[in-house]
Structure prediction request, 178 residues.
Amino acid sequence: MNRRSMLYGGAAAVAAAAGAGVAWRKIQPHQTVSAVSASANGADPFWSLSFDTPDGRPLTMNTFRGKPLLVNFWGTWCPPCIEELPLLNSFYVANKARGWQLLGLAVDQPSAVRKWLQAKPLDFAVGMAGLGGTELSKAMGNTAGSLPFTVVFDAAGQVQHRKIGKVTPEELKLWAAA
Prediction:
């Protein structure tokens, strides 16, 4: 074997090992820190989060504490998300007098959300989760990372329900009655 063949063989082996390492990193299960579990100092990391509204104003999760809250991850590019938004809006309008709050976290670009909301306004709060919203939803139990994804918190801030996919009127009625 000549020197050039050995050099090419060594480079190929290094490249193969690097490729295998990258592939292993992508497919291995990663430990995620739950966004809804208490930290060592007793503070719940989810309730300390802050998002921008589509028009750039700050929206802090702490302002939602103390009342039931439905959080829905959605995107303007997601047909099932768009289909369920009128149902969620009706739920919010019908139940806000009973203390219910609703937050739509858009996994999207602010300009797309602003444009969509101009055409179809919502009565509930909307925050911009951006692309990081997918990771946040995974940390909250969305194992598939798909949209829409809904999490329901009780007045004490504890998760009561999680739903991957579109919610149904029956589920909303059940959740509101609890």
